[in-house]
Design a protein that fits this description.
By secondary structure, the protein is of the alpha+beta class. The chain contains 24 helices and 30 strands. A hairpin with a 5-residue loop joins strand 10 and strand 11.
Length: 747
């Protein structure tokens, strides 16, 4: 009998054993206990990185454990195959994006197989496959019909030398990554999805996601950013024009000492002509184009427009300024400024010598507060509203403003519609075309998919689809007139927003989903990195609701339970290519085997926390497996002693069953794999000692070893299956029932 632990051979043999036994095929006909476990599919960049390995190991451990509980598990894998790196590789190495992507997929699939993940490869998908993106195009047309899609001019990063649109990540320090040219902002017409029509549902839905991390729900909530306030109209002096502001603090209206409008505001268009200082300021702000976060942190700057406005409530006349911290696309792009109670307004007022009026007192006089009190409290200096509490004052003031037609309550959201067009080749073509007069038509369903052309020239500047000599020129299928295809492709978030649906029926020809599989939805367990907390997860939730509303599924949320795995660190910093501190999973597998890598990952930290890479940790995991190996063979070879010590044997059984109890609880109730593993290590130590004692009972040792092998098999499946086979059991461990606690043995 081979008694050396030689992971390389063992793992290859066991993988063959699984393949022969079709061990990971999903029983889609199962009528109960379905469990859909999904790890976020990777972008096929070339090689797996350690973050992937962590994500997929966690997913596989959960899948295998659930299956041993008797569930029918579906665990698929696929490829988020469109995206920019393929185009860059095409330019750099003259290899077609599809070739490059296919090659990477083949390599990474092999890597995943070497790690022993129990994927049902029969359901593999690649989003760059026309069979996949056909349904995405179909879906887009449904949304177009439902009026949930529109086209609007929107700004992009423009490289004036390469004459191309740049993705944000291609802008480095304000310059084009390849040309080094200073990036310009350019407005071009782009497609948008009306995610804002679902703001409320996306927000409310969070409340039912009891098995999602609170932090992720919080991030989504802030991203949607619901705010309840009022629109208030200020009349511009000596004019009939009104300026509308959005405020959440109408209770501070007696403290308004100026209005501030965004440099893009319409009323400035005419002012600009006659006021060169104003014109210069506006041009400066426009050329900078700051993000929302920067806006709130930059030095406040502004210019007096010379206009004044009348406070609708107290009749006071206040100057109208334009200021760089007012966002053009939030609220009305105009703010009533209360420097007595708002930090930004205060900074601005101090700088430009504008009056600071206090109108709110903190509720508790004991409160130690900064000079600027931004909270709610009791009104002062506010006419008939003085002495009211903020919340009551808000109501009364708004009521009075409504009466004089100067105000109305208003809910605002931070969430913006989702811009989905990209001026790129390696993406899914947007299935519309234009007549010469510019009217837009959807591609007829029968003509889908609109495939990407294969013959593509990357040597020219700009979007290769736009430059292609023939692809975009078509005859309108409705009228026979000359027409031009849309040359924009979808943002790749489009593909990843619904792939979990297609996994259930990847080859289905008659629809986006095979409805007979809908009972597998939603996904029971989703696992992925925290970097996807907002966009990917929000878009997927949005798509799920859209799919429901076009009648192809009936649930409202895609992912019942979410696990956000922590990062992998090296010396306290994130492992990443740019930091040059990555380790290659292949190297570790070559040296120690896949089981050691899997064990190390699951043992070194709870899944949600960061994991510090450690060579000694890897060594330790490997040693543990060797000890498990060696004890198993001892137990196989042992002859039972003639004179069993009953007390000791009963103690050993107690330990075994206490460990089963703890391990089971840790894995299934707490996702606490590291503590589960620790308890099995402790048990193994005890068993080794027991085996050395004279009067051991080998039946008890067998019971112990079998339990440990079973419980560890989701984590280190190869060595466990090998030992299982050596115990003369020829079943696939993944089909074995989870060990049961013998309550009698606990005492
Ligand atoms: C008066 C006021 C007094 C305000 C006060 C706050 C505190 P949220 O909660 O994020 O919706 N605001 C409105 N539109 C803006 C814009 N386009 N750019 C920058 N700031 C804008 O924030 C709403 C508050 O942000 C509004 O309430 C407004 O200032 C400001 F003691 O009005 B407030």
């Amino acid at each position: 009998m081979n008694k050396d632990y030689n992971p390389k051979d063992i793992e290859a043999n066991i993988q063959e054993f699984w393949e022969k036994n079709n061990s990971f095929k999903t029983d889609f006909n199962a009528t109960k206990n379905k469990y859909y476990c999904l790890s976020m599919f990777p972008y096929p960049s070339g090689k797996l990185h350690i973050g992937h390995v962590r994500n997929y190991t966690i997913g596989d451990v959960i899948s295998r454990s659930q299956r041993m509980l008797g569930k029918s598990v579906f665990q698929p894998m696929g490829w988020d195959a469109f995206g920019l790196p393929a185009e860059n590789a095409a330019i750099a190495n003259k290899v077609h994006p599809s070739e490059w992507t296919k090659k990477n997929i083949n390599h990474m699939r092999e890597q995943l197989k070497r790690l022993g993940y129990s994927y049902d490869w029969d359901n593999e998908i690649s989003t760059a496959n026309p069979e996949y993106y056909k349904w995405e195009q179909w879906f887009f047309i449904k949304l177009l019909e439902k009026n949930l899609v529109y086209k609007k001019k929107s700004e992009v990063n423009w490289d004036p030398i390469d004459k191309t649109v740049l993705a944000n990540e291609q802008v480095v320090d304000g310059r084009g990554w390849r040309s080094g040219a200073i990036v310009e902002r350019k407005e071009i017409p782009q497609w948008f999805l009306k995610i804002t029509e679902y703001s409320d549902e996306l927000l409310e839905g969070l409340e039912d996601l009891n098995s999602w991390p609170t932090s992720v729900k919080m991030m989504q909530k802030n991203w949607i950013g619901k705010s309840e306030g009022a629109l208030v109209k200020f009349k511009i002096s000596n004019s009939n024009d009104l300026l509308e502001v959005y405020t959440t603090r109408v209770d501070t209206i007696f403290g308004v000492s100026f209005l501030a409008i965004s440099p893009n505001h319409n009323i400035l268009k005419s002012q600009k002509k006659s006021n060169p200082i104003l014109a210069r300021f506006i041009d400066k702000c426009n050329s900078l184009k700051l993000s929302e976060e920067t806006v709130s942190s930059i030095e406040k700057e502004g210019v007096d427009t010379g206009l004044t406005a009348i406070n609708p409530l107290d009749g006071s006349v206040v100057p109208i300024w334009t200021a760089n911290y007012v966002l053009s696309d939030y609220g009305t792009g105009c703010v009533m400024c209360v420097p007595g109670h708002d930090i930004r307004d205060n900074e601005f007022a101090v700088k430009y010598n504008l009056p600071v009026i206090k109108v709110i007192n903190p509720e508790s006089s004991k409160l130690v507060h900064k000079e600027i009190f931004t909270g709610e409290g009791t009104l002062i200096n506010s006419g008939k509203y003085t002495d009211l509490e903020s919340h009551l004052a808000k109501k009364n003031i708004l009521k009075d403003l409504v009466k004089i037609d100067a105000g109305i309550s208003k809910i605002n959201y931070r969430l913006r519609d989702w811009g989905i067009s990209r001026q790129r080749y390696w993406g899914c073509p947007i299935p519309v075309f234009y007549h010469e007069d510019g009217t837009v038509y959807p591609v007829p369903e029968d003509d889908l998919p609109i495939k990407l052309p294969d013959d593509i020239d990357f040597s020219q500047d700009g979007n290769p689809l736009e430059n292609h000599p023939t692809w975009k020129h078509i005859k309108c299928p409705y009228t026979g007139k000359k027409a031009i295809r849309e040359t924009d492709t979808f943002d790749t978030f489009f593909e990843s927003s619904w792939y979990y649906l297609r996994f259930l029926s990847p080859g289905f020809k008659d629809g986006l989903v095979d409805k007979s599989k809908n009972n597998w939805l939603p996904v029971d367990q989703y696992i992925g990195g925290i970097e996807h907390a907002i966009l990917h997860l929000l878009y997927a939730r949005f798509f799920h609701k859209l799919m429901r509303d076009i009648g192809i599924i009936d649930s409202s949320e895609p992912f019942l339970s979410l696990l956000s795995q922590g990062m992998v660190l090296q010396n306290g910093i994130k492992m990443s290519k740019s930091k040059g501190n990555t380790i290659d999973p292949d190297d570790i597998i070559n040296k120690y085997g896949a089981d050691t890598v899997r064990l190390f990952i699951m043992f070194s930290a709870p899944p949600e926390q960061s994991l510090e890479w450690s060579d000694t940790g890897i060594e330790g995991s490997h040693k543990f497996l060797k000890r498990l190996w060696s004890l198993s063979f001892k137990v196989i070879d042992n002859n039972n002693s003639s004179n069993i010590d009953l007390q000791k044997s009963s103690n050993m059984r107690t330990k075994i069953h206490k460990t089963i109890k703890k391990f089971t609880h840790d894995v299934f109730d707490r996702n606490s794999f590291n503590t589960a593993i620790a308890s099995s290590m402790e048990l193994l130590n005890d068993m080794i000692k027991y085996n050395l004692s004279k009067n051991f009972d080998n039946k008890v040792l067998l019971e112990g070893i079998e339990s440990v092998i079973k419980m560890l098999s989701p984590i280190t499946p190869h060595i466990c299956q090998e030992l299982w086979n050596n115990l003369d059991k020829n079943s696939s461990l993944i089909d074995e029932p989870w060990p049961k606690v013998d309550n009698d043995a606990l005492v």
